[in-house]
Amino acid sequence: MNYKVRYLWRQFLDQTGYFSKHNLTPLLFYAIGLVFLLVAMTFMGPEGIIRYLYTVVGLMGAVWLFSMVVLNRNATFYKDSVVKVSYVPLYFRMLPTVIFQTFIFVMFTVLYSAFTALVVDDWLIDIFSLLYYTVLGVILIIPFILLFLTVETPNLGKVNVAVFTVLVLVVPVLYLPESIPDVFENILSLNPFYYVVNGLQSNAVQLAWNIDRLPHDILFFSQAAFLYLWMLGFYSKMKFNLYQYRKKRQDA
């Protein structure tokens, strides 16, 4: 276990070294969102600021979830790192990127709320709800990281753009949930990504988790349980596919 802890700590600190341009791209998006928030504060009233905060937290939530998937793929194939799967479990290799990106996302989400408090009276984000929905996001994304590691396509960049576009469209970033027909909202709310992102957005505008959301939590954990059952059956086969993928790259 000690070597795993050392590996986790070392890789976490090295996040700005390996693929630094890629690993810091989400940080750039979060910083741009903060700059736009500061600019908006000079033109908008409290209502406009809150509406902007809701939108930017949703968009950055999508960036956070997507970045954990793409950056883990980069890390897996960096300098023949697939070889290390034999002594460092693949699921453990995900953690440095996940922890690093999650830390940055939470930090900026708190900053968004802190700056909003400068123009909106008695504004305070619920940190426990923020951490709760963040943990749900991490739980949800791990099976999708494993799935994405097996994607083999020469046009991976286009696939990334398409996946991120779909993610933004299915979560409430470009629209408010109450602005769409109830039937569409009910269908979209079945999506676990929708629940995580909307939970982060709602908490950012002072609608913290409460007991009324318990049915949604039950649905989320049921969906997560099915994903993890699939992951357990897929994991061994996926490692073999990764070795084959590396071998084909070497032969090419």
Automatic annotation (TrEMBL):
Statement: the UniProt record of this protein carries the keyword Transmembrane helix: yes
Q: Which UniProt keywords apply?
A: Membrane, Transmembrane, Transmembrane helix
Keyword Transmembrane helix on this protein?
A: yes
Spans through the membrane: 27-46, 52-71, 91-115, 127-149, 156-176, 218-236
This chain's protein is named ABC-2 type transporter domain-containing protein
* Source organism: Salinicoccus sediminis
